[in-house]
Amino acid sequence: MSEQTPEITVSVVSYNTRDLLRACLQALRERQGAGEAVLQIVVADNNSHDGSLEMVQTEFPEVEAFATGSNLGFGRAHNLCFERARGRYFLVLNSDTEIEPGALSTLRDFMDAHPAAGVAGGQLVWPDGSPQASYGGDPELLGIFYEQTFIGSLMARLQRAPAPIQETDEAREVEQVCGACQFLRSTACRAVSGYDPAYFMYHEDVDLNIRLRRAGWRVFYVPAARIRHHLGGSSQRDWRTRARMVSALNWSRYYYYHRYEGARRGNLTKAMFVFGAALRLGGWTFIALARPGAIEKVKLFRAVLRRACKMTPHREAP
């Protein structure tokens, strides 16, 4: 860690992502070595069992790494990093990302020039350099309906080609920037008390964007700052883990609507998740009669359905 006062505190949360985390930290080391910014890098390890924490302590002694003691989830672990932050800016970064040259200075300079900006996000790209979706609008119930009933998938198939992601270097104000890379003004983050700890994973970034805007801060997308994102690279893919991930996403969206739009809309999202899980369970059960390998999908959606039926608007256990 530099003896200079850091401009940016980079917060990374890791859960069994040792190799991805190493690449993420190496990219940050290179960016600091190139003089792009003075960094304080903080890593919270959510009880990994793949040697992630030991790797950081051995290979990256400049990084402030600590164990959370259990898998606290995304937002709560980043909040612990924020408690240690000394930078003017607080960069929340996924462990499956790699900052490309110039991204840190681009985001810092943009925020310096726009004091009303509470958070900015860069352009996420795949490892081959093609763009990922990096920003969007606030959630809508109709989108969940389309997703759970397969109407969205059907509409996409009827299109001749998916709409391309528009590439441009022009920064613009948006409603949401992706949580894989959120460049936050520290004063803004403190003003809204960081992430809502009720979320275990998923949608905490959506919630934070909304609370920042309600507090008077603005949200910007800055595509000139590029961040390589190995989307989903940190996820294990056995059916039990996948069921926990899907259930966590469902619960986070249920909690979001319950909190922001009332119990009626919250319960409507729950009903859609129950219906969607039952629909998929029935379909995969039928398929498994002819394809025994599909039994994993049956187990997956049986677990998702069970959790969806039991959802309450209190914090979901991992």
Question: What does this protein structure show overall?
Answer:
- With 318 residues, the protein is an alpha/beta fold.
- The chain has helices spanning 18-33, 52-59, 74-83, 103-113, 141-149, 151-158, 186-191, 204-214, 239-261, 263-288, 295-309; strands at 8-14, 39-45, 64-67, 89-94, 97-99, 117-125, 135-136, 172-173, 176-177, 181-185, 218-229.
- The model has no long low-confidence stretch (mean pLDDT 90).
CATH topology of the largest domain: Spore Coat Polysaccharide Biosynthesis Protein SpsA, Chain A
The biggest sheet amounts to: 9 strands, mixed
Annotation, overall tally of beta strands: 11
Structural class: alpha/beta
Radius of gyration, taken over Cα atoms and rounded to an integer in Å: 20 Å
CATH architecture of the largest domain: Alpha-Beta Complex
Q: Spans with pLDDT under 50 lasting ≥5 residues? A: none
Helix content: 40-55%
**How many structural domains can be distinguished in the coordinates?**
2
One letter per element, helices H and strands E, the order comes to: EHEHEHEEHEEHHEEEHHEHHH
Identify the CATH class of the largest domain.
Alpha Beta
Which overall shape is indicated by the principal axes computed on the Cα atoms? globular
Distance separating the two termini: 33 Å
How much β-strand is present in the residues? 15-25%
**Would you tell me the overall average pLDDT?**
90
CATH homologous superfamily (4th level) name of the largest domain: Spore Coat Polysaccharide Biosynthesis Protein SpsA, Chain A
Kindly report the oligomeric state of this protein. single chain
- Specify the number of helices: 11
